[in-house]
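Ticket opened by: R.M.
Priority: normal
Category: complex prediction / small molecule

The reporter submitted a protein together with MTE and asked that the result be attached to this ticket for the collaborator who will pick it up next week. Submitted input follows.
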Amino acid sequence: MANDDGILGQIKQKLVDTKRKWSDEGRLLTGVAADPAVRLPPGQREVKNWPVLDLGIQPDVSAKTWRLDVAGLVENPISWGWADFARQPQVDFVSDIHCVTAWSRFDNRWRGVATRHLLDLVKPHPSAKYVVQHSYDGYTTNVPLAYFADADVLLAHEWEGQPISREHGGPVRLVLPKLYFWKSAKWLTKLEFVAEDRAGFWEVRGYHMRGDPWTEERYG
Ligand SMILES: Nc1nc2c(c(=O)[nH]1)N[C@H]1C(S)=C(S)[C@@H](COP(=O)(O)O)O[C@H]1N2
Ligand SMILES: [Mo]
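Result attached by the on-call engineer:
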C-alpha cells in the first residue's frame, strides 16, 4: 500500500503486530458453523458499550472540509462536499456491529445515504466487482460490490440521532452490517470501483478478503 510508510510511522505498531499474530495463529476461530438466523455470530460476545478501534490516529475532519470522491469503474464519477451529500435522500437503518476482535453491539440506529442510491447515480461499469474504501487516516478496506450494494449499507453521518463522533469516524463512515466491522471505513473520503479484488490495510496483514462473521471469515 502506497500510504503504509506514512501511517506506520504513527500507528500503534504493537496493535498491528498483535492482530497479525492472531491472524497467524488463527486466534478466536471456533470452528463452529453458524446459523445466520442466530443473531450472535460464532465466537462473538455482546457488549453494551461501543469500543473504539483505529490505527492510533483520529483525523479531525470537519463537515466543511470533508470530501467524498467516487472513482474507478463507474460511468459517472462524483466528487461531493458536505452540501452535495446532505442533499441526497436520507435513510434510517438499525443494524448490529460485529467486530473481528469478538465484540458485537446490537441495535445501532444509523442515518445516512444508502449505497444503493449512490450506485444509481454513479452507475458502476459491469466489470466492477469490488469496492475499495479509502479514509482520511490512510486506512483502506476492500469489499465485494454485491455486499456494498445491500439495502442496509449506508454512508452514515448519524448514530442514535447525533452526528457520528470523531472517534467513531465522523463526519461520514461506511456501515456494512453483514461483514465484520473492519470492512466499514471510518473518516471515509474515497470509494474506488475495481474489477480485481485488492487487499486493504488489514487484508494485507492476514485478514480475510470478504469477512463474513457467520462463517468466521476472520483470517484469509
Ligand atoms: N479509517 C478507518 N476505518 C476503520 C478503522 C481504522 O482504523 N481506520 N478500523 C476498523 C476496525 S478494525 C473496526 S472494528 C471499526 C471500528 O469502528 P469503531 O471505532 O467505531 O467501533 O472501524 C473500522 N474502520
Ligand atoms: Mo476491528
